[in-house]
## 1
Amino acid sequence: MPGKPAARNMDKHVCPQPLSSGTGVHGPGTITATGAAQVYINQQMAAVEGDMCICVEPGNTIKQGSSTVFFKSKAAARQLDPTTHNPGGFIMLGSLNVFIGD
């Protein structure tokens, strides 16, 4: 099976979790990659499991990445990998030319 686009610092994620006020959803945001500081993909730090996903409400991180590719002992994150804000948060975008398998 082909790999998925590698996720990096500042790539977009989707967060459909309802706001605590009940007036909408969190919406899209960006990844703040810090877990693999010496690993770069297209001049951006690589994103890994546990990296923060900027959201209107705190606590959103990358929940899961590749089961076979690791950077600094953490699973490499890819487009469509899930985030911790449920239901259905995921990484929306990744590199156009670097792909990571499972």
## 2
Amino acid sequence: MLHHFDLIVGTEEEFHIAGGSTDTLTALANVRKVSQATLVCKRGAQGCSVFEGAIPGDWQAVKLHSGVRVEVLNVLGAGDAFMSGLLRGYLNDEGWDQACRYANACGALVVSRHGCAPAMPTRRELDDYLAREQQVPRPIAMRA
């Protein structure tokens, strides 16, 4: 089935299942063996990584599109919001850096609110957020 797709998006755990390994890069390499699709691996609060060719054997060789640090109130809808942002950039040929920026911001906006569907940002809200993201207060990282 995977060989039919041009774009495959999933969490590390979803790629573990699809690729038959609990090591994410090995799982991605296994998916790559059956599909030349662009692979987007959602890496939680860290952000996401895009793989268009061969899968490297080391995370040091993988570009990380950094996530947005927010206080998480609710994870419902985060994946849907991420995908909406990613597709905005992808379908408008804005490049992976911008698509991932949209995706990570949409996911962050949704998890920082209560609810699911009502928490989805509009295009205008996303653009406003990204235009002033440096001014948005961030939670202080907790230390163990």
## 3
Amino acid sequence: MTKAIISDGGDILFTSKDKEVLYSFLSKYIPNLTFGAFRTGFKPYRSKSNEVKGYSVDDAVRDYIFENDFNGGIFDEYMISRERMDVLQHKNRVVREGVKETLEELKHRGVYFIVATDASLPGRILRPQLVPLGLSGLVYDIVSSTDVGAQKPNPKFFNRVLRANDLKRDEVFFVGHDEDELRGAYEQGFEVVALNYDPKEDLSFISEDHKVEKFPQILKFVKT
């Protein structure tokens, strides 16, 4: 019997343009910076902001700029523009088709929907961000890597989610879009469902019937 679904948040429940907004700003000041190069180069700094207490996204941007020998004045401009960028990032979040209706159906069935996210803020701070999206009352719990002190797919993260919600592995399944998170969950014994994934990634360990295109399709994996 399925008691809960553990899922990533961004790019599963809603489209997220956070990286695109930051890239749009930086590309004005850094000649020939491609989005691909930015995404790859910024990733370790962004990961550090999720893993290290007291190391913020702003710290990540600062170190990315200075350690790559970009003009230091860019960071000053970034801090001046920070509030406006936050507004743009939140405005660019759009709930994906069928998400709200599916979450309502899950709640009706008594199945918990738990968001497991790598974020620099704790879950209790992230929850209010679901309010303008109309999803706050439909998400049972939000567990952040900041709460745990580890990122997905670290077993410590998944074990924390299970313990906090009194769940067992065979009572849940994990929905994700990143190969490393899906593989990690799979290797830890979770049933996994791939959604909004990159077809270029190696997801051969997942059966084809567990790769879906639309959020409402996750309902077929709920066991009663």
## 4
Amino acid sequence: MPNVNASWKNWQLLTEKGRQIWAFKPSSNNINEHLENVDNITDEEIAQFAEDFQFDKSGNPNSGDKVFRNTAINAKFSEFQGQIPKSQHPKEQKVIDALIKGINYFSYLQREDGHWPGDYGGPLFLLPGLLIAAYISDTPFPKAHQEMMKIYLLNHQNQDAGWGMHIEGESTLFGTVMQYVSLRILGIDKNHQQLVKARTWIKNNGGATGIPSWGKFYLSVLNLYSWQGFNSLFPEMWLFPQWLPVHPWRYWCHSRMVYLPMA
């Protein structure tokens, strides 16, 4: 695979009953063992994270799962041992060969329990919610995980210094404010070059108070924005008869699952 880092061999994806977690020490045999020893990491190892995950968003904002695919293919690679059908027609043979290579490739990526892992990158409003919830409940993440979060968020900053709703999106106030707050929670100094630029982008685009209700809610939870500026949500609406056209159960699932706990 192109652009392979030698240190990728130290990473492995641990899976168990639907859980997926990256372990950065090859000695980790399972998720629980990794989590028990996750803080046993040196500053040199943490510094290596930035080298492991160098990322050029301008080329392609998606990860391509390069680390996982490189590891999986190296662990399982072997030439196809089955019988390949032969055709007298060159074009048909090309199709057959391509199918065999494709099947072989995806067999490398399949985990022992039968599923195919994949990067769930995209929305940029999920990690900030997790970080804010962890912050207000005093539930710190391991240092190594915090460092990886910083790298992820900084890697996905747009060229104009903002962030979008998702990794391919144009910069928005919601995306930018949420990532800015997240990086500050993670300990990035306000004078960090990328945060200074992000703060300028926020001010030039109306300020943090211009974000939509989801963002206002999170800022209010952090005591950064007055609840008086937040439109109330009524949990009593769930007591309405279900035949009512405005009953919340009719909302799009992602809106429904957000606005119910917010209420």
